[in-house]
Amino acid sequence: MKILPPRTLPSRTPISRRHRPRPSGRWTDYRPCLRWDFGFTCAFCLLHEADLYGGQPGEGLGGTTVEHAIPRTTDPSRKNDYTNCLYACRFCNRSRSAHPVWSDGARLLDPTLHAWGEHFIAADDRLRPFDDDADARYTHQAYQIDDPRKVERRQTRRELVSDRLRLLARLEIEIAELLRLADVARQRDVQRFGEVLEEIRSLRIDARRALEDLQRYAAVPRDAPKTCRCSAPRDNSLPDDLERQAIEVPDAYL
Fold first, then answer.
1. Widest distance between CA atoms in the chain
2. Which pLDDT score is estimated for 64?
3. Is it the case that residue 181 has pLDDT exceeding 70?
4. How far apart are CA 51 and CA 5, in angstroms?
5. What are phi and psi of 141, to 5 degrees?
6. Minimal CA–CA distance to 169: which of 52, 253, 229?
7. In a domain, 185, yes or no
8. Could you tell me the residue range of the domain that residue 116 belongs to?
9. pLDDT, tens digit (0-9, with 9 covering 90-100), for 67-124
């Protein structure tokens, strides 16, 4: 099982569109393609669907939207253009609202054209723009990338994922040691053997609960779409940068 890292770092490369959906008269039809292309993650503040939904399936709960790089009011002809559609959380979408692409010489950054890692740095559950980067500062302000609600959700994930990973690592060591003791006790002390088995069962319950908590932050949600509007089969996988950050959680010892 692959889970999200405690903190999603800004991508070192622009987001690559791998899907080429058939044109539609409704931009909402592109959601399955957008979810895969953007790794189920808001293109701007980097909140994953799991951060917004508490680990529940993402569709139908209103936490994410289709953002238009060029607003529909500015150029209605591009409202159903897939290359103009971005995956965003409802917070970023509402914050941007009518902010223009250009303002006082600064432009809104497009994550499919600009690598977020060249403009922002993750620090203290925030996604800070570089001080000397006017475009990043404007984008940060327009989308309110460090809205307190977003910071709180980043903190919640970081604390829970970090804690449960540490717990699982400790329990794995303790269970392995108890299994060794059980092997010895089985031949020498029947009563002690039973006590050790009970300790192992108790630790495995704790480990299973920790794993269930981590499953809430699965990198690929349980309801990840299996079909989309692409006429040819598409590689349904996470974007490379998000794939590199995802953590493999072994559960065989449970």
1. 81
2. 95
3. yes
4. 12
5. -75, -45
6. 253
7. no
8. 2-151
9. 999 999 999 999 999 999 999 999 999 999 989 999 999 999 999 999 999 999 999 9
Q: In the 8-state DSSP scheme, what is residue 250? A: -
Half-sphere exposure of 74 (CA within 13 A, CB side): 11
Question: 213 φ, ψ to 5°?
Answer: -65, -40
CA nearest to 253, candidates 171, 165, 181, 161: 171
Measure the CA–CA gap between 234 and 20, rounded to whole angstroms.
8
Polymer length of the chain? 254
Residue 250 has pLDDT above 90, yes or no: no
Residue 55's contacts (CB-CB under 8 Å, 6 or more residues apart) are 215, 216, 217, 218
pTM (predicted TM-score):
0.93
Q: Residue 48 domain-assigned?
A: yes
Cβ(51)–Cβ(156) below 8 Å:
yes
Strand blocks (E) in 21-110: 64-68, 85-89, 102-103, 106-107
- Token digits of residue 108: 């809104």
- What domain count does the chain have? 1
